[in-house]
Amino acid sequence: MQVFAKTDVGKARENNQDFYYISNLGDVPEIFILADGMGGYNGGEIASRMAVESTSNYIKSNFSKMEEDINKKKSLSNDKNIEKEEVMKLLKASIQYANMVVYEEAKKDKDLEGMGTTLDICLIYNSKVYIGHIGDSRVYRIRNDVMRKLTKDHSYVQQLVEDGKITREEALHHPKKNMLTKALGCTPYIEPDLRARVINKNDIILMCSDGLTNMVAEEEIYNITKKNPKNAVNELITLANNNGGYDNITVLIIM
Length: 255
Prior knowledge:
Blueprint: E1 3-8, E2 18-22, E3 30-38, H1 43-76, H2 82-108, E4 116-117, E5 119-125, E6 128-134, E7 138-143, E8 146-149, H3 156-162, H4 168-171, E9 193-198, E10 204-208, H5 210-213, H6 218-227, H7 232-242, E11 249-254
Antiparallel strand pairs: 1-11, 2-3, 3-4, 3-5, 5-6, 6-9, 7-8, 7-10, 10-11
């Protein structure tokens, strides 16, 4: 497995509120995390870093115990979903733990009040990718000649699209497209989206903050990544900046 990653402050922001983490390749499990923070002062930077560090540490600290539980349950049952259910349970617990950490930190300092972050985790284990998602950062999968979005934006504009009030084309330029309906650390409890997908040999997983998707069309993201995945991170960030670079930009490509 190869991973290419980069984060860039963009052209309009003074500081970078994006943060990402990549575990050592070959580790079990392999963990990839991306967070896009929000909040005044240094709130966004603090929220994204704390969320990434908290989830990664929680998963690593509890993974061996989870494997023990899987083996015990498998010895007592023929249920083929045991492993999937236990990994998803661990992923959910790690996100809820991070939510508590960020939320409690914000309560300590008035300057950090209201800080929060998006969060996407890709945990790769036994030929599956387990995804935990909050916010409007995204995870895509490229398989053969198709790029599919594996996450759903938790945003006001996405809700308008689902309610049939605006089209997907109108959503691209809606003035409230950055308004989130769910973010980590803003409330005492959070319910993340969770899903698991089988990974095939030539699949490409792309994780990115909205600093990319607001500046570069999905078709261009696909074409650049498919053509030259090893250099796509640099090309995509350059293109996002050339198109305005109004936000921090982070891209991870796993292949």
